[in-house]
Specification:
alpha+beta; Archaeosine Trna-guanine Transglycosylase, Chain: A, domain 4; 6 helices
Length: 221
């Protein structure tokens, strides 16, 4: 598979997924330079998670995880301060191969990663989509108190990959767990991982609500 050279935006607390959308505020001088270059070129750059221990070399080139996501700038705002607000859409998972240069910001040669095929019928895929849409909507609304439509998009899309990846980005799990999910080689594997995580949280919520309904009156000695 062919490789491409792109600017890289490493972050300590964000794992980005294809077909998800994320707002970014760009304020560091080196990344403001990067955005100006990106806007003149193909409007694309890679987002990678920094490895643990990044703090001691943050202003240099701390290590990143090998798998990240290529993003495309959908919209941007140039602020009077010189900062940028950017709306980034995930395009495809990518693997970092080599650093081409690291000043004033990193540029790397990367390889796009294609997901393995999801081996099921169109009808089964629609069933899985509807199930995920329902439980994810309940999870976002009841547990995270996030408007489901703002994350999941319209049900009419019937895009299972987009739904799974968008919900994965919002899961209340450790950032390194999300990185492990990004590295999974298929939407199918990611689907069942996310479903299990949501089922566990909804079960916990159900137990809490059941306890709250009990008419418990403590006995005073």
């Amino acid at each position: 598979m062919s490789t491409i050279e792109i600017p890289v935006f490493p972050l300590p607390n964000l794992v980005f997924f294809p077909q998800a959308i994320v707002p970014l505020h760009i304020f560091e001088p080196r990344y403001r330079t990067m955005i100006r270059d990106v806007l003149r070129e193909k409007k694309q750059f890679g987002v990678f998670l920094l490895k643990p221990g990044w703090e001691k070399d943050y202003w240099g080139s701390p290590e990143i995880f090998e798998v990240g996501c290529l993003g495309k700038v959908e919209a941007y705002e140039s602020l009077p301060t010189g900062h940028f607000n950017v709306l980034l859409r995930g395009m495809v998972r990518i693997r970092a191969l080599e650093c081409v240069c690291d000043y004033p910001y990193r540029r790397m040669r990367v390889q796009p990663l294609m997901d393995e095929d999801f081996h099921c019928t169109a009808a089964e895929k629609t069933r899985l989509f509807n199930h995920m849409y329902d439980i994810a909507g309940h999870y976002l609304d009841e547990i995270l108190q996030i408007e489901p439509a703002a994350v999941m998009g319209p049900r009419e899309e019937k895009n299972l990959e987009a739904l799974v990846n968008r919900v994965t980005m919002t899961l209340d799990v450790d950032v390194y767990e999300k990185q492990r999910m990004l590295e999974l080689s298929s939407v199918e594997k990611r689907y069942y991982f996310v479903k299990q995580a949501i089922d566990e949280r909804l079960l916990g919520l159900k137990s809490i609500k059941a306890i709250d309904k009990l008419d418990f009156k403590p006995t005073l000695n």
